[in-house]
Write a structure and sequence with these properties.
globular, alpha/beta
Length: 488
Amino acid sequence: MDVNYKFKLKPFNHQLESLKLGWDRQEFGLFMEMGTGKSKVLIDNMGMLYLEGAINFALIIAPKGVYRNWVSKEIPEHMSDDIPYRVIRWVASPNKSQQEEMRSVKDHFEGLTIFVMNVESFSTPKGRNGGEWMARKLGTHGMIAIDESTTIKNHKAKRTKALMKIAAHFKYRRLLTGSPITKSPMDIYSQTEFLRPGLLGYDSYYAFQHRYAIMVRKTMGSHAFQQLVGYRNLDELTAKIDHFSYRVLKKDCLDLPDKIYTVRYVGMTAEQVSMYNQIRKHAMVLLENGEMSTAPAVITQMLRLQQILSGHLKTDDGDMVYFQSKRMDALQEILEEHDGKVIVWSRFRYDIQQIVSKLNENYGEGYAAAYYGDTSDEDRNNIIINFQNPDHPLKCFVGNPATAGYGLTLTEANLVVYYANDFNLETRIQSEDRAHRIGQKNNVTYVDLITERTIDEQIVKALRAKIDIGAKVLGEEAKQWLSLTPKK
């Protein structure tokens, strides 16, 4: 790697190794476990190629909960000071200034232009048209990269087909994911086709499937179909993937910090925004069924706002009202990126029940287990034993930190997700340490689910600053927190 590139932040050894292997390759996969810093690798890669005169444009595509991170945190934090650059963010329903910013991609710029889009936009005509225009006009001197590339694992999906078409115009193509194969080895096909058609040596999905999947013909009444019952030749498939990718796990990165903190942004539905603003402004909300939910004290008001962000709300009569939330989708996106056991914490009983139900529905019965007030002593003991057994199918421990955050050893997990935080600093510290304690052989990544410009941001900021919100006299600071207007 003979490039005169000055890193803004010194790379870890594994990051440097990945750059040496793939920085100048036209197609390359960064299959790096969450928390190992694949975003920095891509940013440094863009900077290197820019200095070599190979690119002047980059299109970065990520899920909704991630793509804002690229704009506000990752690129400013890691792009070399030697690189003149501008960042433009895609907005589906832009205001006038946002529209002008997006249109500025057509204007000449003496430096590196980085355009960031959410992957969901490619399911819409507007997003596809924008991506195709950039591909045709800017792709010959450009790079396209998909962060969390398992979002295109379905080869039949509109956005997958659109992105394959768009990627063909780009000189350089990159995949970023913690685990390219989530539920099935078949997941890898469309991701590699994005890098280059025929990269695995097959001209169709069905030829690929024939080589690596075991299919059995089944009949149900008058209907006949092919059912996948197993896999074969996986060592061969792994060897092929290794030729155009770099794979690293946190356990292999000896120079990483012990604890790694990150966030996943979660949007709100229009219904949630309306309810949130009613509670925020008036400390009460009138529900569709005519029931009232009030918040007479600041802490209670904050609790109600948190409930709305999670998709439920308790009325003054004690009834629980449920409504749509995007938080569950964000959690599943995180799990798709991780290959191993996970702890999910929420202060709310309803969250815990719904998370376990949804994950077991999607990933198979026994994938997730609930550990909270209603869990019997016998079940609690079995959950801990099974979770700590690396070969047991129980992959996700879902608990209430007030119940399960003390005394337990959950060191089989190196990923911890905070679905809804407690206000109590001691509970947060203790729950973090269920995974980060003697017996943990890996670094631990902590992900907070946050909705922008809501109390989510303030709670996490306070807890990380070691402020016990529950014991703090909030006063004027609380008023500032409650005055924030949420983003959809």
